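In the current project phase, work has continued on tokenised descriptions of protein folds. One protein thus recorded appears below exactly as we store it.

——
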Amino acid sequence: MNSAIFRKGFALALALGMMVCGTAALAHTPLCTCYDNMDGTATCEGGFSDGSSAAGVSIKILDTERNVLIEGAMGDDSTFVFEIPEVPYVVLFDAGPGHSIEIKGEDIF
């Protein structure tokens, strides 16, 4: 086999493999948004950029010292409702390494 053809084929296969892996990594980006229900509670909705559900994903409400105030998981409908703490807080949507999002309480409207 001609070594130039082999090198070109190998380079093409490597490039295609990198594109597929890169696309797969981007296809599972976590998404989470929270809003104030105007009744003392807030709702967070989560999911992933590939359309998959966030059901069961860990969610924590932390104070500024990173103490857990509220802990739970996204429901079957990929939502989580919690009572808004009376102290500054952050929402941690944690679907594992590289798949977490933090939302400051002051950014929830």
About this structure: The chain is about 20% helix and 40% strand. The CA atoms of residues 79 and 107 lie 18 Å apart.
